[in-house]
Structure formats: C-alpha cells, structure tokens
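Whether sequence alone determines local backbone shape is best considered at the level of individual chains. When preparing material for the folding task, we compiled for one chain both its residues and its backbone structure tokens. No coordinates are needed to read the tokens, only the vocabulary itself. For completeness, the protein is quoted in full, as a sequence line and a line of structure tokens:
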Amino acid sequence: MDALHWVTSPSVTEPPQEIYCQTRDIVQAKVESVRMNLLQHGWDESTSSLIVAVLGELTSNAFDHNLGQWPDVPGCWFETTIDPHRFVAIIADRGQGVRSSLQRVRPGINDHEALRIAFTEHITGRAPEKRGNGLKFVINALREFPKTNLTFQSGDALLSFHGQMNPEDATLEIINVQTSLRGVVSKIELTQL
C-alpha cells in the first residue's frame, strides 16, 4: 500500500503501524527521530534542523486543519527514507483537504486556487487566528537545498516545486490531475551534493 492509494481508497483502513501516526504526539516523536537519523547518515546539524522544521509544519497541518473534522481515519501517514545523499518523506492524511479548510475564509474557490493561495498568500482556514505562514515557510526552506522536489496534492490539484543549485531557477507549478482526493498527499525529495 502506498500513501496515494491509502488516501484515495474507499475502504477505511489504517496504514501499516510503522508509518501510521494516529495522534500528534506520535508524529512529533517520529519527526524528532528523523533529526538523529539524518545526523547518523552524515547530514549536518543546520540541514537536519531545517528538514525537521519542514516536516513539523507539514505534519502539524494534518492535525491542525482536521481537528474534530476527520471524515474517517484520524492522523497521518508519515514515511521517510534516509541515506547519506538523499532524503525522502511522504506525508498524507484522509482529512478535509486544503480547499475545504480555506473555503471558510475564501468561499467558492476551487482546488487549484486553494493550493496557489495556501503556498503564496498569508491566509489561514483557522481564522481569526493570525496564521498562514506555514506552507510559504516550507517553500522558502526548500529553496535552501541544492536539489529539491516537492509534490503536494489536495483535491484534483497538484503542486510541484523543483529547486535547483541556483534558487532563481526554482519552479513552482500547479496542475489539475485526474485522481481527486479529499485529504493531502505530499512528498519531499532532497539530494545532498
């Protein structure tokens, strides 16, 4: 089973235990263990801290934007692969998705607009709280890496961010995809040169 299949499956099942984080405290502990794993694989402290901050933001969103509104399986899928030169993380949830969260403050938006807003504007579906910096932080943090790929899907919209050696060459694109999903599936791939 992969994360996209889990999120889109009509059958309600929990992910495999080693990657399932039913509560925030479980995912926070797993995110913190990533730091030690990165350091053991030769990633430096500064880079490891930045990766952990990005993971913390993405995993927190799974809980913050779905609290009390989980349609079925609460929590998130959290899977990582770490070696000395490459880091991959997959984070997914069967929550309400970005559009549903932002529609409280921007009624009538579609999935494509919701992703654009979430990654480029200071806005939150948790109004009146003063928030809305999280996904902008994720993009800005990923610009620090020489080679980065982020995919982030919610609804029928897929955001792709590709960072390069020169931050000005980074690209951010949002496209519509055939497979629509209710929650979120994100994948980060970082290469250390």
About this structure: The domain at 18-191 is CATH 3.30.565.10 (Heat Shock Protein 90).
